[in-house]
Specification:
heterotetramer, A: 83 residues, alpha+beta, Ubiquitin-like (UB roll), five-stranded mixed beta sheet, globular, B: 159 residues, Aldehyde Oxidoreductase, domain 3, four-stranded mixed beta sheet, four-stranded antiparallel beta sheet
């Protein structure tokens, strides 16, 4: 599964994307974030404050309780600041 | 005939006048064209540049979804959205929204709505670099969420 | 610094893009420019021309008063109003309102207000000539009064 | 005093302006409209339905109860339809 990080999260993780085999016991995106946090100190910092993180599943905004199964890509990023 | 929105995400500048003209060109049923142009603002005089990161693919998809939503809510004859990414400097245009309709209220409200939704839903992130102080990522504003919430179904809006 | 509105009443066409650019030119404190362009609309396909009569002197005075009112109500950095008179044909631009501000809401609301007030207060009268049916003076719409009343002091506005 | 007529009122009166010596017993613009109505059939038609007429005194919108005295010009016209 393709995992994407943008903006400050990308900077904390150290790169913008990684392709991972996600264990089958990871059900929700909240589970996925907790699992990703264990990968490095950067991941842990980037994903610590879930209240300040937004998520997209296959490029559509979703909540942390959305399912992971069947997704091609899941992206984590701060609240958007375009416009 | 419902409008088919046209959406671009690009590094290049855009021409507001040309886009306004294009939306009404060759038509005689459009009474109102509203444009919103967003510019890089430097209130302190210390801003060197603003760099916009985005999520290629999702950005286009999200802008199109927002524009299609506007076409469902208002009787629009045209919608054009352009959002730039990359490095911009103070005074540079960042974003353009143009709406065309037979009716003035529809054109105004749809442009207002598009900007509010774009601000809270389109995956762009601004990073500032300053001349004399530390730069960094721009924080999202709670005010933008409040603005966007004005358009939620069933909510009455007060100015 | 409060904006000094610029108002023109003219027979000639105008260039929306040039006016939008002019309002923000050389400045880095403007975040938002909103333009409204009103066009001659021909919904039936029978409209040959629209002739606008106005009250020279009062027109300029009234447009300036409306623009100055907008500058008192919102923190604007620029206001431009152009209204044409004389003979126009379907698709021709009639009126342009451009507002510039540090803030998006101010620019949107001021442009919306300017159009509502202009519609009910600026002394212009439209006469239509049709190809196949009788033409005549365009009737004022009650809807325009309702729109303008939204901005009266003490009134809460609901969308 | 300069009296001005615009749009359909101008067409009914037959011309757009006239300079008149207004009698001193004409106090309000309503009085003025009644007095002008006696000048011709066109005037009478143009000024019949005051609910559908707007007035400006020296180029400022006023009501029919505004005073006439001291005005340089008074204009009668239908509700405006610009924009």
């Amino acid at each position: 599964m393709l995992i994407l990080y943008f903006a400050s999260l990308r900077e904390r993780v150290g790169y913008g994307e990684e392709t991972l085999d996600v264990p089958t016991d990871i059900v929700t995106i909240a589970d996925l974030a907790r699992w990703l946090s264990t990968r490095s100190e950067g991941h842990s910092e980037a994903l610590a404050n879930t209240a300040a993180i937004r998520v997209a599943r296959d490029q559509v905004h979703v909540d942390f309780d959305a399912p992971v199964e069947g997704a091609r890509e899941i992206a984590f990023f701060p609240p958007v600041t375009g416009g | 005939m419902a409008a088919t929105p046209s959406v671009s995400v690009q590094a290049e500048a855009f021409d507001t006048g040309a886009e306004v003209a294009a939306l009404a060109a060759g038509r005689t049923d459009i009474g109102a064209v509203v444009s919103f142009t967003g510019l890089v603002r430097d209130l302190t005089g210390d801003l060197e540049a603003m760099t916009l990161e985005h999520y290629p693919g999702m950005t286009e998809r999200e802008l199109t979804a927002i524009a299609e939503d506007a076409c469902k809510r208002w009787p629009l004859d045209g919608v054009r959205v352009i959002h730039r990414h990359g490095r911009l400097t103070p005074g540079d245009p960042i974003v353009l929204v143009v709406t065309a309709s037979a009716h003035r209220r529809a054109a105004f409200e749809a442009a207002d709505f598009l900007m509010d939704y774009l601000k809270t839903r389109a995956p762009f992130w601004k990073k500032e670099s300053h001349r004399n102080t530390a730069g960094g990522w721009v924080e999202a504003k709670a005010e933008d969420d409040t603005d966007a919430a004005r358009w939620e179904k069933g909510k009455k809006v007060q100015k």
